[in-house]
């Protein structure tokens, strides 16, 4: 990704940087316009035409509603801004989502005005000058309610270039009823998990022991980050300048994943072509003992219309290798404003609404996605709807990020290809050595 200087831009009729005072004036003026129209002082059509029009692009997430519904709710809540939602592919097709955003932002036309971005893209979008710095709109005191790690992930080169929206991490799903027949104790090590899974398969209780995501896609990197970290290893060195996935810990972790298919046989070979949904469906269909997936699965598992395992599913931290500790890959999408938007004030207003307490609560309830506001994990409605979510607070505070680098787009492609080859061939050490060389080249 090339880096270029940020072009100046502003809200309609202005140039340069918009101040907080300008924003307050904008909101006051918009409120006055709304009151005048409500009093019959302006025709309804004139009021509608006065609304600032912006676009919002986001990956499509699974839930009881869509992000298009969120946009419509915002439109109905006020009269000053109208949002048009641009639907991108689901996060399981993250490469396509990324490419779609890059194509739009690189044109520097101002479309989309607001976008959601995987946490791994923040550094690259900021380095390219496509993301508007948000410090003046969200000073330090307005960031205190968010998880500090998320604010850090939204910061590049000392500037806040994204606003926290929602978080996710990898989670360990299990069948409570089947586990009860095989000791009742949730496994904390990968070896324990493999043993119990094999026993459940042999007893005919389940068809599959362990489901995960081995497709050559971003989710494979997530699964690898968790496995390697739980063995005490990492993808990159601490300074982010060299690859370390071919360490002893890295080889051990990827070998274990390969062995779930070819040695312990607790995973079907199909997992090598599966991302989130294909791996979720057999689990909620009652065919599997254990599964690694994201938080969105839990509400589906509790829905009688979509699940054969209602009230039979538990969620726990992912296992670790002996002597290691559980690791959950940090995921989630955060919000950005196009640096070239011609409606900055309107974009920031919508951004603020999307990340508000009320909207984050709505997303948690209707999509099963974790809030970035720590206090929402004590929210009574969220606890009642998703009991497991209350326990996610410490998980999110200590989640493991994927490599943080402006070159992530190149790094992840090298990782996806190399990890896939290692899992397919079984020649794990040689393939990880070759992958490390490609990652080093991508890092420059």
TrEMBL record:
Key words, A-Z: Periplasm, Signal, Transport
Any one GO molecular function term: maltose binding
Assigned GO CC terms: ATP-binding cassette (ABC) transporter complex, substrate-binding subunit-containing
Pfam family, one: SBP_bac_1
Entry coiled-coil feature ranges: none
GO biological process terms on file: maltodextrin transmembrane transport; maltose transport
PROSITE patterns given in the database record: TAT
Family: Belongs to the bacterial solute-binding protein 1 family.
Record protein name field: ABC transporter substrate-binding protein
Taxonomic path: Bacteria, Pseudomonadati, Pseudomonadota, Alphaproteobacteria, Hyphomicrobiales
